């Protein structure tokens, strides 16, 4: 074909041709229960402190921000020490624009051409995108029918594929399943045998919603320099709009992430918002307990109506199984309730909202599914 100067060709990477950007529909509906947000907005007191901190940061915006943001990292370490009882140094923390960017940093540092990242499906649907964007091979092993991970399956998969990165969401999205420590340890042992090394990321985006007695992988950090535990302020803190994710790991692992980050990736405004929010952690997270109770009650309610429901340690519930899940999803949407078509065929995922939102969801579901 002759080259048309008026319409030059865009040299799009072939694997991106025809690919839609990731994202759930952002629809204007009365009840948005589709992206696992915290339904409670920050209080007036927290908003005022954030606004004051941002104003102070604004006065210095002619300068680039602190590249290493050790103050924020120290604040995050202090928060985790209280939340999970694990003492950490600021050098063991890293932060970025959402845990999405944290995971991208991990794959930029430890993935790459000729390397493989592994997870166990069904799991968070962004993982393959981080792999694609870093030219890392992507392979999923399987979870069991109840969405648990069989430690032997995990060991065999890792031994066979020799990945350089394993991503384990716990609690998992979209199933809500948390992994027992014994399974995480089995994965860490198998990863330690991989020639050339293998980093294991336990993605605890929903960690604060775990049921009592469910441990955090943070407890394993001291003995496992190839472990990273990622968290986010998007869920329990109710700050999805601020875009702050973070990770705890050995200082050596964090130093590798510092190499691949863009200079000044975390704006002075973001740092100010995060530090102000951390000063109010107990207030911001006051509703975590009631969201957990609301979730447990929703699981019981759905089961009482004969539905299958995955055990959940997160702020959402996966339920089914419907012959035509799209029809149920659409019926709910027609009644103003937006949930997510996610997980294996026939399953749907609903985020835990306020009691009013949950009541609206239940009423609509009874109507649509004839429960
Ligand atoms: C398992 C899991 N990890 C990470 C994220 C990313 O969260 P964020 O980038 O808002 O920190 C999400 C978001 O829904 C998630 O479900």
Automatic annotation (TrEMBL):
UniProt keywords, alphabetically: Amino-acid biosynthesis, Aminotransferase, Histidine biosynthesis, Pyridoxal phosphate, Transferase
Pathway: Amino-acid biosynthesis; L-histidine biosynthesis; L-histidine from 5-phospho-alpha-D-ribose 1-diphosphate: step 7/9
Keyword Amino-acid biosynthesis: yes
Biological-process GO terms, alphabetical: L-histidine biosynthetic process
Alphabetical list of Gene3D superfamilies matching this protein: Aspartate Aminotransferase, domain 1, Type I PLP-dependent aspartate aminotransferase-like (Major domain)
Entries under CDD domains matching the protein: AAT_like
Cofactor(s) for this UniProt protein: pyridoxal 5'-phosphate
Modified residues (N6-(pyridoxal phosphate)lysine): 235
Reactions catalysed: L-histidinol phosphate + 2-oxoglutarate = 3-(imidazol-4-yl)-2-oxopropyl phosphate + L-glutamate
Organism superkingdom: Bacteria
EC number: 2.6.1.9
Binding partners and assembly: Homodimer.
NCBIfam families: hisC, PRK03317.1
HAMAP family to which the protein is assigned, alphabetical: HisC_aminotrans_2
Protein name per its UniProtKB record: Histidinol-phosphate aminotransferase
């Amino acid at each position: 074909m002759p080259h048309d100067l008026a319409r030059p060709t865009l040299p799009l990477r072939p694997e991106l041709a025809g690919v839609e950007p990731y994202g759930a529909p952002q629809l204007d509906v009365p009840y948005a229960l589709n992206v696992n947000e915290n339904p409670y907005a920050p209080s007036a007191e927290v908003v005022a402190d954030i606004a004051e901190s941002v104003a102070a940061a604004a006065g210095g915006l002619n300068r680039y921000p602190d590249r290493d943001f050790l103050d924020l990292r120290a604040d995050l370490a202090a928060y985790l020490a209280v939340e999970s009882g694990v003492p950490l140094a600021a050098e063991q923390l890293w932060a970025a624009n959402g845990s999405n960017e944290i995971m991208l940093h991990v794959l930029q540092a430890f993935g790459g051409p000729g390397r493989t990242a592994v997870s166990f499906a069904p799991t968070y649907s962004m993982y393959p995108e981080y792999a694609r964007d870093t030219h890392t091979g992507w392979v999923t092993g399987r979870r069991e029918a109840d969405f648990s991970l069989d430690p032997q399956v995990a060991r065999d998969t890792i031994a066979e594929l020799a990945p350089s990165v394993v991503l384990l969401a716990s609690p998992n999205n979209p199933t809500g399943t948390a992994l027992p420590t014994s399974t995480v340890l089995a994965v860490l042992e198998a990863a330690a045998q991989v020639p050339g090394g293998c980093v294991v990321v336990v993605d605890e985006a929903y960690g604060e919603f775990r049921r009592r007695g469910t441990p955090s992988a943070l407890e394993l950090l001291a003995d496992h320099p190839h472990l990273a535990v990622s968290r986010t302020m998007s869920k329990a803190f109710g700050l999805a709009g601020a875009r702050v994710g973070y990770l705890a790991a050995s200082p050596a692992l964090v130093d590798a992430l510092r190499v691949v980050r863009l200079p000044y990736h975390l704006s002075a405004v973001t740092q100010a918002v995060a530090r102000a929010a951390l000063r109010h952690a107990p207030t911001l997270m006051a509703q975590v307990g009631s969201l957990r109770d609301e979730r447990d009650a929703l699981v019981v309610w759905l089961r009482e109506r004969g539905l299958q429901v995955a055990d959940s340690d997160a702020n959402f519930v996966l339920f089914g199984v419907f012959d035509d899940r799209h029809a149920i999803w659409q019926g709910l949407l027609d009644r103003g309730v937006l949930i997510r078509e996610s997980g294996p065929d026939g399953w749907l995922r609903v985020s835990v909202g306020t009691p009013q939102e949950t009541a609206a969801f239940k009423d609509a579901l009874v109507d649509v599914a004839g429960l």
